[in-house]
Amino acid sequence: GAGVSQSPSNKVTEKGKDVELRCDPISGHTALYWYRQSLGQGLEFLIYFQGNSAPDKSGLPSDRFSAERTGGSVSTLTIQRTQQEDSAVYLCASSLVGRVTDTQYFGPGTRLTVL
Amino acid sequence: GENVEQHPSTLSVQEGDSAVIKCTYSDSASNYFPWYKQELGKRPQLIIDIRSNVGEKKDQRIAVTLNKTAKHFSLHITETQPEDSAVYFCAGTNYGGSQGNLIFGKGTKLSVKP
Q1: A 25-84 residues with CB below 8 A of B?
Q2: pLDDT for the residue A96
Q3: pLDDT (tens digit per residue) in A22-58
Q4: For A100, which of A7, A45, B36, B53 is 20 to 30 Å away at the CA?
Q5: Residue pair A32/A75 in contact by the 8 Å Cβ criterion
Q6: B99 interfacial to chain A (CB closer than 8 Å)
Q7: Inter-chain contact B43–A106, Cβ cutoff 8 Å?
Q8: Would you state the pLDDT for residue B98?
Q9: Residue ranges of the alpha helices (H) in chain A?
Q10: What is the CA B39 to chain-centroid distance, rounded?
Q11: Contacts of A46 in chain B (CB under 8 A)
């Protein structure tokens, strides 16, 4: 079946602009995660959605970052007033029921470049 | 919250040799430790995992060991092959205020030279 998809694959923006990144999880997966992958910094947890529960936003680096998940499926990560340090690959992952022991299936990522 | 340190950041081995990557974690409540492999230009994929009630787990050429007392766990790859070249990420678990999420190390870039 179809895996996790993300769009756009690449995004170049100017400092100060807002950007929206989209994630389509695997159909039927109830949990969705966003990570940021900066050069040499590994996979930094940002936010986690599990079913209808309130999202775990503990990893968001600032109030410029927010995310929504509509209808328990598609998610959008929004970065407002982008800064150069926001440049990174943003990865989305989904898992079946959201237990921490569930395998996370990653999308291909969105490479964000802030000029 | 959980903090995961991973070493080394880069590792180069000859084909056929073994490779070992080590991780330490800070939270004694952490109880699940997966390893993900990310080949160049591709997405991370789970290759093996271990739970805190087990000391070692093997799957063909890869194995993971866990020392709960010392709070460290390691990935062992034997008889390395060029296709093992990738970045490997370890992770621990963080239960602070949620059902739990993974905290990843910064990755180890493994190069296997033919």
Answers
A1: 33, 35, 40-45, 48, 50, 53, 56, 58-59
A2: 92
A3: 999 999 999 999 999 998 778 999 999 988 888 989 8
A4: A7
A5: yes
A6: yes
A7: yes
A8: 62
A9: none
A10: 14
A11: none
**A42 to B46: CB separation less than 8 angstroms, yes or no:** no
Tell if the CB–CB gap between A101 and B95 is shorter than 8 Å.
no
**What angle is formed at CA A74 by the lines to CA A55 and CA A51, rounded to 5 degrees?**
40
Confidence tier at A76 by pLDDT (50, 70, 90): very high
**Amino acid A99: pLDDT:** 86
What is the spatial distance between Cα A83 and Cα A115, in angstroms, rounded to a whole number? Answer: 8
* Type of residue numbered A45: F
Q: Report d(CA A32, CA A51) in Å as an integer.
A: 9
Instruction: Name which of B101, B102, B104, B109 to mutate to probe chain A: the one with the most chain A Cβ atoms within 10 A of its Cβ.
Output: B101
- Give the pairing type, strands B10-14 and B108-113: parallel
State pLDDT tens for residues B9-68: 999 999 999 999 999 999 988 999 999 999 998 999 999 999 988 899 999 999 999 999
- For A58, phi then psi, to 5°, come to -65, -20
